[in-house]
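QUALITY CONTROL LOG
STEP: pairwise intake check
CHECKER ROLE: data steward
CRITERIA: each record must contain a sequence immediately followed by its structure tokens, with no blank fields

ENTRY 1 OF 2
RESULT FIELD BELOW
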Amino acid sequence: MNNHSEQANKDHKKNLIAITSFDSLGLSEPLLKAIKYHGYTKPSAIQEKAIPLVMSGNDVMAAAQTGTGKTASFALPILELLSKKERLFNRQARVLILTPTRELASQILASLETYGKYVSIRTAVVFGGVNINPQKNKLKNGVDILVATPGRLLDLYRQKAIKFNDLDTFVLDEADRMLDMGFIHDIRKIISFLPKNRQTLLFSATFSNDIRKLAKTMIKNPTEVSVTPRNTAAATITQAIYNVKKSQKSAFLSHLVKQHAWEQVLVFTKTKHGANRLTDYLKQAGLKSMAIHGNKSQSARTKALADFKQNKIRILIATDIASRGLDIDQLPHVVNYDLPYVAEDYVHRIGRTGRAGACGEAISLVSADESTLLTAIQRLIKQDITVKTCKNFKFENDTTHYNHKRKFFRKKHNKKISNNTRYTK
């Protein structure tokens, strides 16, 4: 490295250290007023790094763990840039923000309205599960910012309800989930009808190596920003596991909630049916609970989340895909009723608590047949999770084990199997 580069690097680090308030980021007075109104005083690390880059027009790939202010990192500079541009009409949009779930889309819209309280910006959110006609009417006169899920956006585009001839900025939020969970073909279709001359921003909690390679093919010379080690949980989250037989998990969860008098608990299950079954069990146990997943109508999902935030229900049971965008202030407890198949999802799940420097607790109920999933999670986060026990709960012996040859879980048996035994279909 030459002397000039070394000096530039020192100056860059010095500038980052010098930033201690939002006033130092070059944001206009209306945005600073909104930030102050909502009680935000100091930008997070990802905001310090990303906001100046976005305002300068750079393409950005930013990785930051959940709860660090990721949304504001692109929302604030986008609002700043839009405040200086002319409005578009006739079904056009200046900014497109693509997200994987309805909940996250609604959350981003809420953030834009929060930060844009004192600026005149037209926003819209579109997603499936609701009538498309009101969305088409909303887009008729054009919008400054459109927040969308892939499927509904493609429907609207095919019906000529939205155009992107004058698009300036494309944001792919939760990029790892979008690309890793089956949205890649929809994303490619959407990118094909966007202007090539645009600013592209990818924001995510985690980026696998494969996702990084794929993402770089979609954007031009991106500046990478990372403020925390990849695939790590916030230090404010206390993690623990209980070894529990699968058939006892519901009873033990009910026991934990009652014993510790938990008032607000977010619980994750692998499947929609599992979420429904657990909800029914907890209700019968006298615990107010609701489930949120893809089979629920949008109105039911919205009501469940609102009731949970207002403490009208004690336990919210969610699947992974429904969990994106669940932003609950000061959520104290997250429980993994089932461990996720994908280790990275563990980081996303527990990231619902311990947000913005607050303390949180993440509990995992682990049956013997989930041992390989637990190993993968601990390898990913590079730490051993503390194992706890509960003296006043009668745990049954878990005799399930993993058969590596057959790749499925089965009960141990004492009967000897002959070498001549053949399995039939």
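ENTRY 2 OF 2
RESULT FIELD BELOW
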Amino acid sequence: MSDTPTQIKKSTNYVFGWGIFWVFATAGVAFGPKNLWNFNTWITIIAVVIHVGIGLVLIRALKQNLLAMDELHRKIHLDAMAWSLGIGLVLGCTYEMLEDIKLITFQPEIPHLILTMCLVYVAGVIQGIRKYQ
């Protein structure tokens, strides 16, 4: 564990870089088959495998980023992650059922859940920082 500001900044920049890379890979998998390679099965499979690989590297970078933090920052982020996961799980299951039980007329979309989880995470980090100032 290293809690030097330089190490944390380097680790955070590494996560940011892989996060941006993953977003572009996600866009490639989402829009490439239709717009770039006319639903070619093999190219699509390769794109999905690359996407998953980049996602795994991103997860590893996030873990390393947590390990680079001091105990207080790690606690703040883990608490925010717990809220994000919990709310995402509960709301995600509920959101999916709303269409099945005819309380909404549209198909639930995963981006809505992802956005909610991101907002909860950011709010949790902000709340944690304020709590421990």
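INTAKE CHECK: passed for both entries
DESCRIPTIVE NOTE, ENTRY 2: Helices lie at 5-35, 41-68, 71-100, 110-131.
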